[in-house]
Design goal:
The chain is α/β, with parallel strands linked by helices. Helices cover 44% and strands 14% of the residues. It has four domains: 123 residues, Rossmann fold (3-Layer(aba) Sandwich); 167 residues, P-loop containing nucleotide triphosphate hydrolases (Rossmann fold); 69 residues, Helicase, Ruva Protein, domain 3 (Orthogonal Bundle); 92 residues, no CATH class. It has a five-stranded parallel beta sheet, with helices on both faces. It has a five-stranded parallel beta sheet with strand order 9-12-15-8-16. A two-stranded antiparallel ribbon has the order 6-7. Helix 13 crosses helix 15, helix 18 crosses helix 19 and helix 19 packs across helix 20.
Length: 481
């Protein structure tokens, strides 16, 4: 839809001249000959830009500037004669974005108007971008962490490009949601988004799933079938777990990407489509190339705009924000009521490494809601978290925690097992429930002691604790809150 321009000019011949200047641009223009006529128009309409003469018969252009709303305020370019140039500068101080001095050249007029419209568009994008980071939501993605802000920025920049996006990240980090965000932010959002999991389809059927087949192409092909490529025409084709694809099919995919044409299985007719490609894998694609499992030419064709999704353990407070959103959504699905998470629950979510990432978090949340009937969720309601090497290391060095009585202990069992001690300190004996302290406090004190012993050298302390420095920094950030 073309932008709309309100021209406020009391000299009718000049107003018509300015309108004629803008005819080649295709913009919609409206003329007001007095200040009151301009205000009446603005009461019922919201133009994208106002061309405002400072000297009007019934009021000053400054009066109109003063009455413009604070919210959704249109940008203003003021018109001035040489004698009122100082007044134009004053108008800019009160919110005008530029001024034009009469007499006005047609090309100069069009350039100034075009720049004003571009500035408004850019301002809207900045507001949307800031709003995204303040709310921590981008399409269906959730999180305010710096790692996710980088992801949002890449998606915003790449969305309207034709370049292929290649998403990498651990299993469960939300690669399909990221692909959908690329699609939803693009000018293809009204067209189909078609997702195909290359790992979930048998090797002998995946070519048919991508390209389709004709009747009689193979046993069981009783009718013609449109593949994912044809279904995604005009939209986005998302190929998940791409590195699982057979090498022979990779060559056909490469030709499809290069030419935009393909043949259905059993057909000799070339079919042409307009498709945006988004790919994903939980492997290192370059390592797959070096190991001979992924074609190098296909890698270079697809790896144009890479997006690395961070694991949940590296996203700090995002885990709490994601959990709250999931509790609200899943509670509605399960017919339950959710009010809030307690501080203990939040702390437990932050202290766990989530090896299964967001998918594991979602399963845990559904279990919690199904098995409990409280609107306030506390840490003791969570099911036992599977223990990992990283989890055990975060609680204490392995030779100081007694977990031998349970062959595969849960995270909760480690938390309530033998207390953490320093190497030269005997295990503290708990005589009553008054001696029990939250595990995160015990862990905090232990890590702080290690850092002090290492002369405040966090990397050295991390090495001795068999932790990564990033884990310690992340935990220190949570302790400060």
């Amino acid at each position: 839809m073309p932008a709309s321009i309100l021209i406020v000019e009391d000299t009718e011949s000049l107003a018509l001249l300015y309108q004629s200047y803008l005819i080649p641009t295709g913009l919609k223009t409206f003329v007001a000959g007095t200040g009151q006529a301009a205000l009446d128009y603005l009461d019922a309409n919201q133009p994208d830009l106002i061309i405002l003469d400072i000297m009007l018969p019934d009021m000053s252009g400054m009066d109109i500037l003063a009455q413009l709303p604070e919210q959704n305020r249109p940008d203003v370019i003021v018109l001035t004669a040489h004698a009122s140039k100082e007044l134009a500068v004053e108008a800019i101080r009160h919110g005008a974005i530029d001024f034009l001095e009469k007499p006005i050249d047609a090309e100069r007029f069009r350039i100034t108007v075009n720049n004003g419209l571009k500035l408004k568009t850019l301002s809207k994008k900045v507001e949307e971008y800031q709003s995204t980071f303040e709310n921590g939501r981008f399409c269906q993605l959730i999180g305010k962490s710096s790692a996710m802000q980088s992801v949002y920025q890449i998606i915003s920049n790449a969305a309207n490009s034709k370049a292929t996006v290649f998403i990498t990240g651990e299993s469960g980090t939300g690669k399909e949601l990221c692909a959908k965000a690329v699609h939803e932010c693009s000018d293809r959002k009204q067209a189909p988004f078609v997702a195909l999991n290359c790992a979930a389809i048998p090797k002998d059927l995946i070519e048919s799933e991508i390209f389709g087949h004709v009747k009689g192409a193979f046993t069981g092909a009783t009718s013609n079938r449109e593949g994912a490529a044809g279904q995604a025409d005009g939209g986005t084709l998302f190929l998940d777990e791409l590195c699982e694809m057979d090498l022979g099919l990779q060559s056909k995919l490469l030709r499809f990407i290069q030419t935009g044409t393909f043949q259905k299985v059993g057909s000799e007719t070339l079919q042409s489509v307009n498709v945006r490609f988004v790919c994903a894998t939980n492997r290192d694609p370059w390592l797959e190339v070096q190991e001979g499992r992924f074609r190098e030419d296909l890698y270079y064709r697809l790896y144009v705009i890479p997006i690395q999704l961070p694991p949940l353990r590296d996203r700090g407070e995002d885990v709490v924000q994601i959990a709250q959103a999931m509790f609200e959504r899943i509670a509605k699905e399960e017919g339950k009521f959710f009010e809030k998470l307690t501080e203990n629950a939040k702390q437990k979510l932050l202290n766990y490494d989530w090896p299964g990432n967001v998918r594991q978090l979602e399963n845990m949340i559904r279990n919690t809601l199904v098995m409990n009937h409280s609107e306030v969720i506390d840490a003791h309601m969570f099911p036992a978290f599977p223990v990992t090497n990283s989890t055990v290391q975060q609680i204490a060095p392995s030779n100081q925690v007694n977990v031998q009585s349970t062959p595969n202990p849960s995270f909760d069992e480690v938390q309530t097992g033998s207390p953490v001690t320093t190497p030269n300190e005997p295990v503290a004996t708990m005589q009553s429930h008054f001696d029990i302290r939250p595990m995160w406090i015990v862990e905090k004190e232990y890590i702080e002691q290690a850092i002090e012993i290492c002369g405040n050298n966090i990397p050295k302390a991390a090495a001795m604790l068999e932790l990564s420095p990033s884990t310690i920094y992340r935990k220190m950030k949570t302790w400060e809150q």
